[in-house]
Amino acid sequence: MQNPHLMNIPALPFAYSCDYRHTALVLIDFQRDFMEPGGFGETLGNDVSLLAAIVPATQTLLAAWRKAGALVVHTRESHRPDLSDCPPAKRERGQPALRIGDDGPMGRILVQGEPGNQIIEALAPEAGEWVIDKPGKGAFYATGLHDRLQARGITHLVFGGVTTEVCVQTSLREANDRGYDCLLLEDCTESYFPEFKVATLAMVRAQGGIVGWTGASADLLAELERS
C-alpha cells in the first residue's frame, strides 16, 4: 500500500522523497543580528536587505509545515554571557569593529538572551518548536541535536536559513555525515554575497547530491498539500 505521507518533491539532482512525519524543517539563524538593519551583520558592512528578501517564502513554508504538524527546529548562533563557549580565535578573527560579546545596537552581540540574538518576529518560534542555541557554525556541534532527532525518528531534514555558505552549508554537511537526507530550499536561503549562494547550491547537489538536494519551496508546498 502506498504511503499517503510520502512526498516526492522535484529537486536537483533528482527528486527528493521523504515522509513528512519523519522530516524536520530546520531554519538556520534567522536572528535579528543577522537579518535587521543595525545588527551585527550590517556592522560588518553587509547589505541585510538581501537576507530579508527570503522571509516571505520562508514564512509561507513555516505556516504550512506547522499545519501539517511536522517538526520545526530553529537555530541561533549564540554564546553564553561569560563567553566560555566562544574560542578566542573566533572572537578576534578579522579585527571587526564590534566583536562577539561587545555591546551593539541590539545588545551584546551573539549572546544568549540579548535582543539581537532573538529570531525575527516573522519567523518567531511557537510553543513546542525546538530552539537550538549553537556556539558554532553548524547546528550539530555541541548542541545534542542529533540525539534529539534520533529520539524523534527523524531521517530527513529540510533546510532554510542564513547564510547559505556559512552556517547553512556547515549544518548540511554535519547532517550528511550523520546519515540524514537533506533538501536545501533555494528561495529560503540567502547570503550577503549572491555569488557565494550560487556556488554553495552547486556544491551541495554536485556528483549526484554528494551533500544533498536543492529545490524550491513551492514544489515542497504542493507535495505537502497533496499528501
How would you describe what is shown here?
The protein is α/β, with parallel strands linked by helices and 227 residues long. The protein has helices spanning 32-35, 40-43, 49-52, 55-68, 88-92, 145-151, 164-177, 194-209, 217-226, and strands at residues 6-9, 11-12, 16-19, 23-28, 71-77, 103-104, 107-108, 130-134, 156-162, 181-190, 213-215. The strands form three sheets. A seven-stranded mixed beta sheet has the order 2-11-10-9-4-5-8, sandwiched between helices. The protein has a two-stranded antiparallel sheet with strand order 1-3. Strand 6 (103-104) and strand 7 form a beta hairpin.
Can I get a quick summary?
The protein has nine helices and eleven strands.
Low-confidence stretches: none
Q: How would you sum up the global shape?
A: globular
Give the terminus-to-terminus CA distance: 14 Å
Would you report the number of β strands? 11
Roughly what is the average pLDDT, rounded to an integer?
96
Q: Which percent range fits the helix content?
A: 25-40%
What is the element layout, followed by pairings?
Layout lengths: L5 E4 L1 E2 L3 E4 L3 E6 L3 H4 L4 H4 L5 H4 L2 H14 L2 E7 L10 H5 L10 E2 L2 E2 L21 E5 L10 H7 L4 E7 L1 H14 L3 E10 L3 H16 L3 E3 L1 H10 L1
Parallel strand pairs: 4-5, 4-9, 5-8, 9-10, 10-11
Antiparallel strand pairs: 1-3, 2-11, 6-7
Helix pairs in contact: 4-9, 7-8
